[in-house]
Amino acid sequence: AGAAEVRVGMTAEKRAAPLILAVGSGKGGVGKSTLSTNLAVALSRAGKKVGLVDADIYGPSQARLLATEGMRPTAEGNKLHPVQSPWGLPLLSMGHLVQPGQAIAWRGPMAGNALGQLTDAIWGDIDLLVVDLPPGTGDVQLTMLQKHKPAGAVIVSTPQDLALMDATRAVQLFEQAHVPIVGLVENMAGYVCPHCGEESDPFGQGGAEAAARTMNLPFLGRIPLDLAIRQDSDAGRPPAAGEGPQADAFARIAQAVIA
Ligand code: ADP
């Protein structure tokens, strides 16, 4: 009975700790949340059992992106049950831990504890937890990373020089926390005019790939600036769950992550 207990205990232990894949960015507004949602959906379409944690304390947006607004996680003992999104992803958000509109002056340790509540929830049988981190490279992020060490991190940047400089800082933050970088993703790269089809590069192109090469990191792919991505995301329909070039772009990044 003793050995069986130990085995059961080990299984429970193993289930409680799926691999964490963090998604970070040097600053806000570069598409970190959009990538987190769609990478999670694409990984799940590629056969992985995936959960999603929205740790963005400054602007949790996953409830909207995954059409789970108004849903509330239930608690069992001191653990949370994730919310089930209609897209087949279990989800827990920082937005679920605070009252809507409630302002919190987050400090590193507090945010670290809150992240623990989300990652150490009743996730059931999953392989991978995608964690949408807060943007930036401050204390809060560092504590989160040190306390709940991800197995790897994906960094999102736009092709702009400024965003790239910020992305370099994000790389350093992960390295400081001894989290291996899986690679860089360039978002909002290239724009196809929905009216005339002309291609332009409002934020330049290829910058993140060049930066990845300079830093000796894998480049995982690029997502174009595309009105349909914004519209579908706002409507709670992850583009990665559909068909067409948008879904393909996210699927390619998921394949690069798995590889
Ligand atoms: P972050 O999490 O980095 O703050 P978000 O993912 O919230 O950024 O994206 C900011 C805004 O840009 C959102 O309105 C989102 O829909 C939009 N967006 C993100 N990526 C793209 C893209 N590739 N094409 C069009 N709109 C995008």
From TrEMBL:
<dbReference type="GO" id="GO:0140663">
    <property type="term" value="F:ATP-dependent FeS chaperone activity"/>
</dbReference>
<protein>
    <recommendedName>
        <fullName>Iron-sulfur cluster carrier protein</fullName>
    </recommendedName>
</protein>
<dbReference type="InterPro" id="IPR044304">
    <property type="entry name" value="NUBPL-like"/>
</dbReference>
<comment type="function">
    <text>Binds and transfers iron-sulfur (Fe-S) clusters to target apoproteins. Can hydrolyze ATP.</text>
</comment>
<dbReference type="InterPro" id="IPR033756">
    <property type="entry name" value="YlxH/NBP35"/>
</dbReference>
<dbReference type="GO" id="GO:0016226">
    <property type="term" value="P:iron-sulfur cluster assembly"/>
</dbReference>
<dbReference type="InterPro" id="IPR019591">
    <property type="entry name" value="Mrp/NBP35_ATP-bd"/>
</dbReference>
<dbReference type="InterPro" id="IPR027417">
    <property type="entry name" value="P-loop_NTPase"/>
</dbReference>
<comment type="subunit">
    <text>Homodimer.</text>
</comment>
<keyword id="KW-0479">Metal-binding</keyword>
<dbReference type="GO" id="GO:0016887">
    <property type="term" value="F:ATP hydrolysis activity"/>
</dbReference>
<keyword id="KW-0378">Hydrolase</keyword>
<dbReference type="Pfam" id="PF10609">
    <property type="entry name" value="ParA"/>
</dbReference>
<dbReference type="GO" id="GO:0046872">
    <property type="term" value="F:metal ion binding"/>
</dbReference>
<keyword id="KW-0547">Nucleotide-binding</keyword>
<keyword id="KW-0411">Iron-sulfur</keyword>
<dbReference type="GO" id="GO:0051539">
    <property type="term" value="F:4 iron, 4 sulfur cluster binding"/>
</dbReference>
<keyword id="KW-0408">Iron</keyword>
<keyword id="KW-0067">ATP-binding</keyword>
<feature type="binding site">
    <location>
        <begin position="26"/>
        <end position="33"/>
    </location>
    <ligand>
        <name>ATP</name>
    </ligand>
</feature>
<comment type="similarity">
    <text>Belongs to the Mrp/NBP35 ATP-binding proteins family.</text>
</comment>
<dbReference type="GO" id="GO:0005524">
    <property type="term" value="F:ATP binding"/>
</dbReference>
